[in-house]
Amino acid sequence: MTRDAVTWERPTLKNVGTPCLILDRDRMDRNIRRLRTRLDQLGVALRPHLKTAKSIDAARRVMTSSAGPATVSTLKEAERFAAAGVTDLIYAVGISPDKIERVLVLRATGADLAVTLDTVEQAQAVAHASRQAGDPIPAFIEIDCDGHRSGVVPGERTKLLEIAHALAEGASLRGVLTHAGASYGADGDDALRACAEGERASAVKAAAILREAGFACPIVSVGSTPTAHFAQSLEGVTEVRAGVFVFFDLVMAGVGVCQIDDIALSVLGTVIGHQPEKGWILADAGWMAMSRDRGTAKQKVDQGYGLVCDIHGKPFPDLIMSDANQEHGILSIRSGSNAPLPDLPIGTRIRILPNHACATAAQHDAYQVVCSDDDAIKAVWPRFGGW
Amino acid sequence: MTRDAVTWERPTLKNVGTPCLILDRDRMDRNIRRLRTRLDQLGVALRPHLKTAKSIDAARRVMTSSAGPATVSTLKEAERFAAAGVTDLIYAVGISPDKIERVLVLRATGADLAVTLDTVEQAQAVAHASRQAGDPIPAFIEIDCDGHRSGVVPGERTKLLEIAHALAEGASLRGVLTHAGASYGADGDDALRACAEGERASAVKAAAILREAGFACPIVSVGSTPTAHFAQSLEGVTEVRAGVFVFFDLVMAGVGVCQIDDIALSVLGTVIGHQPEKGWILADAGWMAMSRDRGTAKQKVDQGYGLVCDIHGKPFPDLIMSDANQEHGILSIRSGSNAPLPDLPIGTRIRILPNHACATAAQHDAYQVVCSDDDAIKAVWPRFGGW
After folding, report:
1. Cβ(B94)–Cβ(B76) under 8 Å?
2. How far is the C-alpha of A288 from the C-alpha of A302, rounded, in Å?
3. Going by DSSP bridges, is the β-strand pair B315-324/A138-143 parallel, antiparallel, or unpaired?
4. Which pLDDT value is given to residue A44?
5. A319 neighbors A332 (Cβ within 8 angstroms)
6. Helix (H, G, I), strand (E, B) or coil at B377
7. Widest pairwise Cα distance in chain B
8. CA pair distance B173, A339, nearest whole angstrom
9. How far is A331 from chain B (nearest CA, A)?
10. Nearest residue on chain A to B97, judged by CA atoms?
11. Rounded to a whole number, what is the distance in Å from the CA of A33 to chain B's nearest CA?
């Protein structure tokens, strides 16, 4: 009597179900080392933004200690990371009054969670809740360094001091915080250096105003991935926040902060069809797997929904995901290029580099972790979403 | 000794955590009734596409029976819905050979799951696997009715018959299937009627070719939300697939398939800041809550990342989410409008209608279900994602 041996199939890029999210751990570790080395030389701490990875496993590789410091964009991130032992946290989105109770509950478990705000109303609400709870919630005043989004312009001395005075009625002013979001649209190294200096100078100026008025302002927190990599001086800054540098993406490559082969994140897909008259290859990864992010549309090189690589992560010349439906990706040669359409039979595995790592990762519930020169999936790191 | 009474706070739009996804069940039910009535009059069955809702609770309201029929876009949807008793299923994305084993496993549990394909290679792979398993997998040949994506052009008689012959070696040809994806870009009612007629005629023509060659082709399946609402005749068609009609969205309103007040889905957010000099209101719902979908950017009325309403779902004149970061939405008056910026203090609750219901819903793990004229949250319907 014969029977087939039962063999366990080792998970690899060739047999894992597609679409799925692939993380090249070697590239990620290299990206982390690069920024850590840079910030060590500039003499400031790294407070990584965990909104990109939303994974305990990834967070532990990027943080300088298992307790942080770290930055989060939602209270759910704060709760999940705190439960995993990350206690030094800033919630870097403006606090709404109805969320303060949840902050207090998490702080009562021992997490040192700080909030961010830029109005007197918020400061009053935080101070009031702090008094009621007998817990002075640490708060950062958000500074607007480039008109990108929220924050107090550092020259608005009166408003800055009104917020600080309102906080003093029960809360704890921990410092100032700014984010040079406009740096994502900067053109060239000089422009990036200027963004970084503007970010630094704004935060330092605001801190000086507060200190002159008698407020201790121990932390001066700045950061964005482009400015973190281009700052020439961080004098007066105590910490840098950055998130997407862990994985990098096509938008960051377009800005000039990284090279294509630094991008650690990709979506693994499978070829499911061809429309040869149109020069199209169809894949089972559409916008649900890539996200709807078209961040490179405004850049010099429009990468469509992503740059297509072979299974080992090597880009095919000028092959992009030019359009996407929910579960279909349409792959074609970039408009204007004479590169040949590669022959990718049905069933061929491909990897697609994303425009925006934060958006693409958010479409998936786990990272399939690989090393750079190996098809084997070494680990599966869960990630979470939601609020 | 006195103590406060412990009161349970009934969940409402005013106290639920934000951002979250709100589903107006009254509007949804009305949308379902409208299409059902229409298709009953045209004498065809409705096979709803469950990729929009990805919720058992929503599926049960839209399907004509608890067992289906229904359409899915991923095998995970097939597995989840089959586990809930939905057995009549079409997986309407081209099958890749490595997914066939998973189809067979699900079919072995009793689900009548059919696959879709448009190449001889796929047909051979499905026929081979069917023979090996002793289970003739039902298959649809996908027809390209408008050059939108995948499928065989109905005039390609030779290719159609080659696929049918390849399937005959073990699988089961169940019919033809097409999707008028180009209808999303149609301009005006006449253009929509023409899309619907083109979709119908293509599928019927392909079925006729197959039947003339001796292949039974019992099912002729067409569908998209715009064509389902504009078809004048569905002669020769046996079933209609449509998905987004359940919720509708701003893209569908822009196409002219629904009115703004038919849109059943919205994201509830909270005001967290102001930049009065710029005319901006900041909210705690950014692209993570809305998705990166900018489907109205190509339409006559660009709705940004969504149209902003009050807590009851009534739109503020010309107030849109004009830009979005991960967890920040920037609300402002539409360019060119003279409408006043409403006074929305910090903490104000707002609801934002989405560009694309499928994409926005996918950013959330549950629906908070409400009725049209009531703030109370009546139910929480979980939804799933992934593959």
Report:
1. no
2. 20
3. unpaired
4. 98
5. yes
6. coil
7. 90
8. 38
9. 11
10. A347
11. 25
Residue A232 C-alpha from the chain's centroid: 22
Task: Classify burial at B285, counting beta carbons within 10 Å of its beta carbon; exposed 0-12, middle 13-18, buried 19 or more.
Answer: buried
Instruction: Determine how many CB atoms are found less than 10 A away from the CB of residue B340.
Output: 12
Dist. CA B148–CA B128, nearest whole Å? 30
Below-70 pLDDT ranges, chain A = 1-8
**Average pLDDT in chain A:** 96
- Torsion over CA: A78, A83, A84, A86 (sign): positive
CB spacing of B287 vs A359 below 8 angstroms = yes
Cα separation, B314 vs B352, in Å, equals: 10
Contacts within 8 Å (CB) and 24+ apart, A335-344: A341/A279, A341/A281, A342/A316, A344/A271, A344/A281
Q: Cβ of B365 and A386 within 8 Å?
A: yes
User: Among A49, A54, A36, A100, which residue's Cα sits nearest to residue A221?
Assistant: A49
Rounded (10°) angle between helices A75-83 and A100-108: 10
pLDDT of residue B9: 80
Minimal CA separation from B41 to chain A, in Å: 30
pLDDT number for residue B5 = 58
- Across-strand partners of A142? A177
Closest CA to A266 of A222, A302, A226, A310: A310
Report pLDDT for B1.
40
Backbone angles phi, psi at B356, to 5 degrees: -135, 110
Residue written as tokens 């800041």?
B273
**pLDDT digit string (tens) for B219-260?**
999 999 999 999 999 999 999 999 999 999 999 999 999 999
pLDDT at A9: 81
**Torsions phi, psi for A352 (to 5 deg):** -120, 120
- Are the C-beta atoms of residues B353 and B266 closer than 8 Å to each other? yes
Between CA A310 and CA A312 the distance in angstroms is: 5
* Cβ–Cβ < 8 Å for A235, A199: no
pLDDT at B205: 98
Residues A140 and A177: their CA atoms lie apart, in Å, by 6
Tell me whether residues A347 and B96 touch, CB distance under 8 A.
Answer: yes
Residue closest to B230 by CA, chosen among B254, B199, B203: B199
Rounded percentage of chain A residues whose pLDDT exceeds 70:
98
Assigned token pair, A89:
């946290």
- Residues of chain B falling short of pLDDT 50: 1-2
